[in-house]
Amino acid sequence: MRWFTYDGIPPNFFQISPLGVEKEFKGPSVFHLRGKEERPYVISTLLHGNETTGFFALQKFLEKYWDSETRLPRSLVIVLGNPKAASKSKRHMDDQPDFNRIWGKGNTEWHELAKDLLHKIEELNPLACVDIHNTSGNNPKYGCVSQTDPLTLKLAGLFHSPLIYVTEPSEVFMMATSKYCPSVTLECGKPGDMEALNSVVEYLNELIETTPDHLPEYNGDIYKTVARMKIPEGSWIDFIGKFDQEVNFSFIPQIEKLNFNNVPKGQVLAKVNSPNLIKVLDNQDNDIADEYFETFEDQMIFKREAFPSMLSTSIEVVKSDVLGYLMEKIELKS
Ligand SMILES: [Zn+2]
Asked: Which of 67, 75, 188, 237 is the most buried (most CB within 10 A)?
């Protein structure tokens, strides 16, 4: 496993879709585009192969810098994380780990691949790292940060407000790169969301002209993930919202509508066939499900007001990762 590195934008970059990235560039790829100012921005995408907005946004943004006299105002390092998964429209291949969970401790060949890029990034001393993703659930676009220093907030605030502050999982690209420079994740709704795609292009157009310290101050709200909701191993689930002897949790079909909304106490999350709750793990991995949920007859309901995000109806995602997150607003000490 290694990175395939390219100087400049390979010409065929503009002719292919994410499905063709593996065939064209052979594997995980890094393009180094030299601009007038040497210190680069690092822009990564396709760490999750089926999250395509970043790729299409880069094609659109870079168009004017290809085959013309227009030179990039500053250098760019483009990272295409998992072309193999992209070629199959999958988050990751079955024999691969999740490429946005390999940036922490570990000794697999995937961790080595990650470390290799982190060394490069450290050497490059970038102005900032921007990692572009989509959400599997029906979420609005939002910016994600793992630090709350002014530069990081400006960098994410340029994309959208409110911001989401996360510290878990800790093995993500943003967390690892935030050791070297301001680092943010742009979450762009579901793949194919054109409004989000255009706002990434606009974001990159603005960012490339300036440095993070010259961006406007961020004064919007910041929400923090306080817990992640998971399905107990071996559970049967669906998203029909009907009681069923065979299905442990039948979540309400409109579950994604709860994302980024204040959900009132008493809201139904699922029909259930036992008093067992889903898992709600706080940042120390304590199960705090009974603080948030209770069962009432054949329903699992919210026991208190909550602010969920990333709730997804993709059974694959829910089983392998999370059902969603629970958030609370944070106040920054000034
Ligand atoms: Zn992702």
From this structure: 188
pTM for this structure? 0.84
Separation of CA 46 and ligand 1 centre (Å): 8
Residues with CB under 5 A from ligand 1 (ion): 48, 51, 133
Residue-wise DSSP of 57-114: HHHHHHGGGSSSSPPPSEEEEEEE--HHHHHTT-SS-TTS--TTS-SSS--SHHHHHH
Strand-pairing partners, residue 183, are: 129
For domain 4-220, is the CATH number 3.40.630.10?
A: yes
Sheet with 299-302: list strands edge to edge.
237-238, 249-251, 268-272, 299-302, 293-296
DSSP, collapsed to helix, strand or coil, labels residue 239 as: coil
Q: Where are the domains of the chain?
A: 4-220, 226-329
Tell me, in angstroms, the distance from the centre of ligand 1 to residue 288's CA: 26
CA dihedral (20, 199, 135, 258) in degrees, to 10, reads: -150
pLDDT at 331: 87
pLDDT less than 50: residues of the chain: none
Calculate how far, in angstroms, residue 217's C-alpha sits from the geometric centre of ligand 1: 27
